[in-house]
Specification:
- The chain is an all-beta fold.
- It has three domains: 117 residues, Immunoglobulin-like; 169 residues, Methylamine Dehydrogenase, Chain H; 329 residues, YVTN repeat-like/Quinoprotein amine dehydrogenase (Methylamine Dehydrogenase, Chain H, 7 Propeller), CATH 2.130.10.10.
- Helix content is 3%, strand content 46%.
- The protein is built from two helices and 65 strands.
- The radius of gyration is 31 Å and the shape is globular.
- The chain starts with a helix and ends with a strand.
- 46% of the residues are buried.
């Protein structure tokens, strides 16, 4: 007891001593190894409610909103969900379970903060349509309407209890379900069918289901619910009611199709589209008033309503595919859309001065236009800002924005829109300067890569061009164009790179060679001394692993890293390449099995992107996940994929790093996420070195970070007596310690010092911190 009292007193004193430490922003102090999902939750397709929350199934996750105060919760793959693309949600009051269905038929159950995954339908051998179209929950059972019939989940046992396949030979889709203790009613493509719940009824046999035909047509039923002890179902333009014996018409209006029916807190609600000749010409939501539906007048807030409910306070909510999660309160409307990029798509990123800029196109490496209209995004101070045609008309004709590069000296951002031109954006006044095509061609630019040299010149690869495959936007704003038969009309891949010798490397997808190098001599404008060199696969030709080169980067030692269709190669003699005295090399990693053989780094992977961090380590994006390798590439430090991490997708398209805090931003085909890495860069603008957390609480089990210290410095952790506790080397301007001694035990409570020494005499830092055991 005496020891505990002394420890408590010690901790209190230490807290008082350190209360004057400058507070660092939350973003800077994200725990090392933490993931963040930057995905839009703006296109809900389904909605449900618990006692206190409304939940919306959005395309890229689930949004939860507190009914009383509108505080939001975001559920994404980073939160622990099994997948990214969500289709339906349902909530069971009896077990307090949120049921989440995904586009690929996977299912998650969230109960008391714990997520249970049920991948059985996703992994099943059922042929045909396994999509989940609706979820209805009642008394610990979740009824899922599927493309083949009905699936039931026991929410107590957390397992699939029954699976019913409707139809003989041709599967019958179930659009919606309502059930009680005696019957299951399904709205299907052949009308309303009912299965009696009884020990002597085998519902596995479809012939034991009743298909109603009297009083209600056997056409596709789109919605179903229960209201005032009657089953309510929608078929074609009519809503029918069933009293247990007869079906009769409740409401009908030509061309109006009901998308959703819901008995919500005692109110019968409907969402409808007016469909004429297959086109949606109008839409509305309504509430039954006893004799008819009272419809809310359509306005901007009601555009594509899919599902709706009424909460305990009497307010309406609806999932609007175009407007977001809509909240109707006191006669007004508000849409609840968390801050995020406008879309999940991204093709290129650039980080400068604390700001991340993203080119939004989801165009692939073949650079066939997809006509993406999402514009571009900026991330600053944990907030996303979207620049799209909705706000900036100039972007309306700039589709498929594929490349981005910050021009810091001019406070401008340079972009390229594939097939649509190059443009400069000035954030100070939101102005645009657009250049559609080179003067030598009657066709728009098709930019695929961009880089900037030390003089501030921007270099752009322009695919399929006959006269201007290389574009240079000089520091004075003037343009110069380069051409050679080696790249005329070629398929130029994702990247262009300026090396330390001011040579321009252009990545290609070309059977005659995967890279062309331009050495323009001493004057960009003087074409007479321009030299070109081609690198191809095979020794004597450039020694590339493949003639399909997707990306290029330069590391902190000036070595070039080439990402190809068949792994990685490096060039460490770039200054001699135009003299035919330099070829690429692959990094061979010893198998360490006694055979003496080695394997080339990632030789079986198609490399999409490579980014270098402050520790000169390489972050490598592939179609099979994200790799972090050592500075020389001989060891893999980390490997992230969809299964072993919160990485949104195995298809990694672009990567960039915030040098201030080491946060790695990863663009995938399912959205942008970020990972808090342990590598930062200390510069003259870096804030004073500090320790985080400080004090280190007793229950803290994460890494202790020493930030803003001299780059790549030696770090020794010592106690107040000068005894060495731990020693490591910083990765860039940051080092970490897990708080444990060499024997694996946690260090004792006390004051510690981090002694950091870099390469120069003045490159030193001494940090004091407290650890509590």
């Amino acid at each position: 007891m005496r020891f505990q009292l002394n420890t408590a007193l010690f901790c209190k004193i230490m807290m008082m001593l350190f209360c004057t430490v400058t507070q660092i922003s939350t973003a800077q102090n994200l725990p090392l190894g933490a993931w963040t999902a930057h995905v839009p939750l703006s296109s809900p397709t389904s909605i449900c409610q618990s006692k206190d929350y409304v939940y919306a199934a959005c395309k890229n996750g689930v949004l939860g909103v507190n009914i009383d105060n509108n505080l939001t919760e975001k559920y994404t793959k980073v939160s622990g969900l099994a997948e990214v693309f969500v289709s339906q949600v349902g909530y069971d009051i009896a077990t307090s379970t949120l049921v989440i269905a995904y586009q690929n038929s996977n299912v998650d159950l969230i109960q008391n903060g714990k997520i249970t995954n049920l991948p059985y339908l996703k992994n099943s051998s059922i042929t045909g349509n396994k999509n989940i179209y609706s979820i209805f929950c009642r008394d610990s059972i979740a009824y899922l309407g599927t493309g083949f019939g009905l699936m039931m989940i026991d929410l107590v046992k957390k397992e699939i209890s029954e699976t019913y396949t409707f139809g003989a030979g041709t599967a019958i889709r179930t659009n919606a379900v309502w059930a009680d203790n005696n019957s299951i009613f399904c709205a299907t493509t052949i009308g309303v069918i009912m299965g009696r719940i009884a020990p002597n009824v085998n519902l596995l046999n479809f012939s034991n289901w009743i298909q109603y035909s009297s009083g209600i047509p056997q056409n596709e039923a789109t919605a179903i619910t229960n209201y005032q002890n009657k089953v309510i179902a929608a078929v074609d333009n009519t809503i029918y009611q069933f009293d247990g014996t007869n079906w009769t018409t409740l409401f009908s209006e030509p061309d109006w199709i009901s998308m959703h029916l819901n008995n919500s807190n005692g109110e019968l609600l409907v969402s409808q589209y007016k469909i004429v000749s297959g086109n949606i010409t109008d839409r509305r939501i309504g509430k039954w008033n006893g004799s008819s539906f009272a419809f809310l007048a359509p306005n901007f807030a009601i555009e594509r309503p899919l599902q709706l409910l009424q909460d305990k306070n009497g307010n309406l909510w609806h999932a609007d595919e175009y407007r977001g999660l809509m909240h109707h309160q006191s006669g007004g409307y508000s849409n609840i859309i968390p801050n995020a990029p406008l879309d999940i798509s991204s093709k290129d990123m650039d980080f400068e001065d604390g700001k991340l800029w993203v080119a939004s196109s989801d165009i692939r490496n073949n650079f066939i236009p997809v006509y993406n209209r999402s514009g571009f995004y900026k991330y600053e101070n944990q907030e996303w800002r979207n620049y799209s045609a909705f706000e900036f008309p100039a972007i309306d004709t700039l589709l498929d924005i594929t490349v981005v590069k910050v021009i810091p000296n001019e406070n401008k951002i340079f972009f390229g829109a594939h097939y649509f031109g190059l443009f400069e954006f000035s954030p100070s006044d939101n102005s645009f300067k657009v250049l559609k095509k080179p003067p030598t061609e009657d066709r728009e630019f098709r930019p695929t890569g961009v880089d900037m040299d030390k003089q501030g010149n921007i270099w752009v690869s322009n695919a399929y061009s006959g006269t201007a495959p290389i574009v240079c936007r000089k520091a004075d704003g003037e343009y110069v164009y380069f051409n050679t038969s080696l790249i005329t009309s070629a398929i130029l891949s994702k990247d262009i790179l300026v090396d330390d010798f001011n040579q321009i490397w252009i990545a290609k997808d070309d059977a005659n060679g995967g890279i062309t190098v331009l050495n323009y001599g001493n004057d960009i404008d003087d074409k007479s001394d321009d030299k070109y060199y081609n690198l191809a696969a095979g020794r004597g030709f450039g020694n590339l692993p493949s003639n399909i080169v997707n990306c290029l980067t330069k590391d902190n030692d000036g070595i070039l890293w080439l990402g190809t269709l068949r792994g990685i190669a490096i060039v460490s003699c770039a200054g001699y390449v135009v003299d035919n005295a330099c070829e690429a090399e692959q990094i061979c990693i010893d198998r360490k099995d006694g055979t003496g053989f080695c394997d080339n780094l990632l030789e079986d992977e198609a490399i999409n992107c490579i980014t270098v961090d402050a520790g000169n380590r390489k972050w490598i994006g592939t179609n099979n996940g994200l790799f972090l390798v050592s500075a020389d590439g001989t060891s893999t430090i980390s490997y992230f994929n969809e299964t072993n991490s919160p990485l949104l997708s195995n298809s990694v398209r672009c990567i960039t790093i915030n040098p201030d805090n080491g946060e790695v931003f990863i663009g995938t085909d399912k959205g942008i996420c970020s990972y808090r890495s342990d590598a930062t860069l200390t510069t003259e603008n870096t804030e004073d070195a500090f320790v985080y957390p400080n004090p280190v609480a007793k229950d803290y089990t994460g890494l202790i970070a020493f930030k803003g210290i001299p780059n790549n410095s030696n770090v020794k952790i010592v106690d107040v007596s000068g005894n060495l506790v731990y020693e490591t080397t910083a990765v860039g301007g940051q080092a970490t310690w897990n708080g444990q001694l060499l024997n694996g035990e946690r260090a004792a409570t006390g004051v510690y010092f981090a002694m950091c020494k870099g390469a120069g005499k003045k490159d030193k830092a001494k940090l004091k911190f407290v650890l509590i055991n």
